[in-house]
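Study this protein:
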Amino acid sequence: MFKYYLLLSFLFVTARIPMRILHGLAWVWGATLYTLPNRARDTTLRNLRACFPDLSNAEISRLAKESLTSTASTAMEMGKSWMLPIDKTCSLVTQTEGLEEFKQAAGGKQGIILLAPHLSNWEIFGLYVCQNIESTFMYQPPKLPALDRLLQRTRSRGGMKLAPADRKGVSMVLKALQRGEMVGVLPDQVPNDEGGEFSKFFGEQALTMTLVSKLVARSQARVFCGFVVRLPKGKGFKLTIREADQAIYDEELLASVRGLNKSVEDCVLMAVEQYQWEYKRFRRQPDGKKFY
């Protein structure tokens, strides 16, 4: 419980610190991570070199530093994501693109699947986009019960429902789609063997979830992909939503899974430096070889 109360204190304090100061602290954190040997830096560099083989060492180094700083910024912003009143959290989004088309689609009778990659601050993205929309987001419950209660309380304060990433949760989101509601999924996590197929992600084989493709097949839902990008000088975020790659609707499972990865790639390419390259996306390989 000590770690939980330490986290809670961190969240309360950072919720009240101006964004520019938080980002300054994140810059120091990111620079430290890049300078000192650690797993986050090594994973970031390995991922970037594999996914962008045509970039120079200097370009890879720059992207790695910016990605580490962006991930640190997301952590520093968590207090503002979770602890502020919902209207103050949502006011951090100062620009939008594609939001009106998405709202029109969400207001119809057809179910909506919203893909939210680990790009910039996905917590703020989810809270903002779910306003006044019946929505259910899948999540991985933490092992600490107190932290799980905190997650459920903070993420649901805008009306969002949470579904655990298990069979019960899958049943919940399928029923929500069949009712014409919106379902949110983090599409770039490594699934278990039963829930994934290998597909190319930036040219590398990645075990990719089949859940979205199967939900589309069973519900005929429309799929969108969205994210926020952190603006300079603490001026908030720009939110972007666009329809997913059309291949995601393909009846052939592997083609649909490839469409899922292509949808995420298109988002990442709009802000490569703010993607969470610290995640071991390629830790599972079809030949059993070690990637990291």
